[in-house]
Amino acid sequence: MKKFFSLLLCLVLMGSVALAETTLNGGENRGISFDKADVNDPVDDLSPTTGRFLSELAEDVPDGFTGQAVTGRYMPILVQIDNADGGIGYEGSKATGNRAPWGVQYTDVIYETALYKAGNTRLSFLFSDIIPDEVGPCRSARLFHAWLREEWDCGFAFYGQQEYTATNVPAVFKETGADKKADGLLLFSGTVGTNHPWKQYYDTYSKKQLAKPHHVTANAAAMVSLIPYDFEPANHTWLFTTREPEGDDAETIYVNWAKGDLSVYNSILEWDEDDECYYRYMKDTSGKDHIYTSLKTKVDEPVEVTFNNIIVQFVEMEWARTDAPNPTVLGTGNADYFMGGKHIAGVWNRDSLAERTVFYDEDGEEIRLQPGRTLIIVMDYQFADEGRSVSYE
Predict the structure, then answer these.
(1) Domain that includes residue 62, residue range
(2) Distance CA 193, CA 215 (A)
(3) Model confidence over 109-140: pLDDT tens digits?
């Protein structure tokens, strides 16, 4: 199936094949009512972020790594990650060096959000079960990412930040008090001076011949070790089930962010029934398709990164500038879920920055995810003219 799909994929991404028959409507009124969910109680030995058994994960963790599966301590960290040209490692006409991410195979959750109005995107990696000592390419933060840190109330590694008047990341940290929490050891900015204790845990991968600014690596495991043990992050436990989901068929998902040259940020997620997961396919600027794969490191060979859950969170967006996104993250909006080769429509809700975003199904119940990795696509649905759409078949 993968070989056949690879032949078809390039044509689809180039626009030579018709779009899938069902396009999600991010702005429709779905009429879904819900009783606001409370936080969920963690379950012993079960990861609150992936639903996997922590004792099983602990059996084969490389030296120098940490995480709940290693220490028993729940202390997630978010890391801002480059997604230039779709984060595909290749030598192409518009790329110098390899831009594939490293450490990605240990993620619990990946968020993809708009970076430019034209369709460039950025990724946020959330690590909790297993936290590696090499993560990258580490890049800068925007408003959404600062607000995302608030709902997880966890460590945050970033290399640069937006400081426009309307999209000022340091102002968010100051307003929420994040810059003072945990003795000032939650915000791991990579652009500070060497007098900060975490600065030593940033490095560059010049030996891999990665072009600037796609060359910064973060030792996320060491950064987490700096967070005082008496600090407790927010309870962000999700609900999980091993039962097969019920919904309409969704074997192929088309995620479109942009048109033309920027279509390298578009992706296709293909359900593999044998592996029981979605494979993420991208195309490079030459039109060649790739399975989303990690970069080789000192301890890991390249790994194809798969997803058990895909969540599309539709938001409204204002753009202070073409590179300054200001999304609506509070209130209620539409959400769509893909798992087990099925699609389920629903809504999301978050009433304050200190609360988690809760995802509800069509019956108004908190969605139960499949155990494994989750990809959350935060899509500004009202910019269809820029090429934004999510569809499936």
Answers:
(1) 1-393
(2) 19
(3) 999 999 999 999 999 999 999 999 999 999 99
